[in-house]
Write a structure and sequence with these properties.
about 230 residues; Pdz3 Domain; TRAPPC; ER-Golgi transport; Beta-Lactamase
Length: about 230
């Protein structure tokens, strides 16, 4: 079985991101990259967003809104500055120049920066509260499941307001087992640690990380957490 869990995030009751796990081997493989050759004018609309060149309009042939430019004419973007190519040229300047065409563009997903992960965690914390207030059912919780054709986002909020987010493959079953197990690991290796405080302290404990990795290996092998040792 392939690893079915893409991301794990733990957000404290104040909306701060205190733990994150990302399986980059699934997110940044060549299967998730797409290279197309275009004539002038460029069909998809590309703009700079969050310090990267992203498609904002004009989905076609597998290129989707949110895809980022990874390379132009075989030259990759810089790792720390994805608006620039490795040869020093600006991506947007090359794409705006008719002399650059026909142009080959590689699209894909760039790794989120630490600041982007923190901002997204805060945004989800707010969205969760908004969805709880919008619910017509009294006492309803906030957003628990977000489904797309590419992934599912699952959320478990604990009694203390801590949110556990798990992003999985759409076909992955037994996610409730995963959420429950992460909560148990959080309770055993974070809350019971005398050096841990809930007010914005990151979870950076060896035993916690080892327990999460053990859970993921078991899930990868068997597809569920049945018979997983505590």
């Amino acid at each position: 079985l392939d690893m079915p869990v893409y991301n794990i995030m733990i957000i404290n009751n104040a909306g701060a991101l205190v733990y994150t796990y990302t399986d980059q081997s699934r997110l940044l493989t060549s299967a998730n990259e797409l290279e197309k050759t275009y004539s002038y004018p460029l069909e998809p609309v590309i703009e700079v967003q969050d310090s990267r060149c992203c498609v904002v309009f004009g989905e076609a042939d597998g290129v989707r809104i949110g895809h980022c430019v990874l390379a132009v004419n075989g030259t990759n973007v810089q790792a720390g500055r994805p608006t620039l190519l490795e040869n020093g040229q600006e991506v947007m300047s090359v794409l705006a120049n008719p002399a650059s065409y026909p142009v080959s563009i590689k699209f894909g997903k760039l790794k989120l920066t630490a600041n982007e992960r923190i901002n997204l965690a805060g945004m989800f914390h707010s969205i969760y509260a908004i969805t709880a207030k919008l619910s017509p059912v009294a006492g309803s919780s906030g957003l628990q499941l977000l489904e797309t054709d590419a992934y599912r986002l699952h959320c478990l909020q604990t009694v203390t307001g801590v949110k556990i987010l798990v992003i999985t493959d759409p076909k992955q079953a037994n996610v409730n087992q995963v959420l429950k197990r992460i909560y148990e690991i959080y309770a055993d290796y974070a809350l019971k640690n005398p050096f841990f405080t809930m007010q914005g302290m990151n979870i950076n404990f060896t035993l916690f990380e080892e327990a999460v990795q053990s859970m993921l290996r078991h899930l990868d092998k068997f597809g569920n957490l049945t018979n997983l040792a505590p």
